[in-house]
Write a structure and sequence with these properties.
Layout: E1 6-9, H1 13-31, H2 39-62, H3 69-72, H4 76-85, H5 101-123, H6 129-160, H7 164-170, E2 172-175, H8 186-198
Antiparallel strand pairs: 1-2
Length: about 200
């Protein structure tokens, strides 16, 4: 890590709030997934997660610097170079998301979109049993990718000596002073919640 690095604002409020709302929504959807009495609650939680994703994808194109996919989504060689550097004496540090973590983020967004879409169809009894099984398979895959993501956060926190969970709560992370984003974008976060509630 650069010796000139300091605590700067990196992740805006839509990224942070969207992250934790997805965690909560997915957890509640998972818990209520097998109980017929909780079918409506399951659908509401899943729809809310779908709404967050439907906001997050365009936000990944027009949002603040580190929210944009163009900032952190790289090719496999960049992800592999990052992973190879971790056990070494100078692990590669990124101000925003690292190129290996980018794959988990993109996978989680894609899986949430697919699980939400198939869940919506299944709730309306469109598609039959095969669609319900596909929905369940997507949810299980999403849980597995989330587990890999959590493991990556733990390794990254240890290797870089920074609390990435705290960073996703506060938005602040180590980086050069001139790399900070100018603001948290609270109005966009309100819009995101409204979109998710509407879905």
């Amino acid at each position: 890590m650069n010796n000139d690095a300091r605590d700067i604002l990196v992740w805006d409020l839509p990224v942070r709030l969207g992250h934790w709302l997805m965690v909560a929504g997915f957890a509640l959807a998972w818990i209520t997934g097998e109980a017929d009495d909780w079918r409506l609650a399951h659908a509401v939680c899943g729809s809310f997660v779908l709404g967050i994703v439907l906001f997050r994808i365009p936000w990944g194109l027009v949002g603040s610097r580190y929210a944009r996919f163009a900032d952190f989504v790289r090719g496999p060689s960049a992800a592999w170079a990052y992973l190879r550097s971790l056990p070494g004496p100078a692990p590669m540090h990124t101000t925003g998301h690292n190129p290996a973590g980018a794959y988990a983020i993109v996978a989680l967004l894609g899986l949430a979109l697919a699980a939400g879409g198939t869940g919506w169809l299944a709730y309306r009894e469109i598609g039959g049993e095969w669609l319900e099984e596909l929905h369940e398979g997507l949810a299980v895959t999403m849980l597995a990718v989330a587990g890999i993501h959590v493991a990556g956060v733990a390794v990254g926190s240890l290797v870089h000596g920074e609390n990435l969970v705290r960073a996703m709560l506060t938005g602040r992370k180590a980086g050069p002073a001139d790399a900070a984003i100018p603001g948290a974008r609270p109005a966009a976060a309100v819009l995101m919640v409204l979109v998710a509630a509407a879905v």
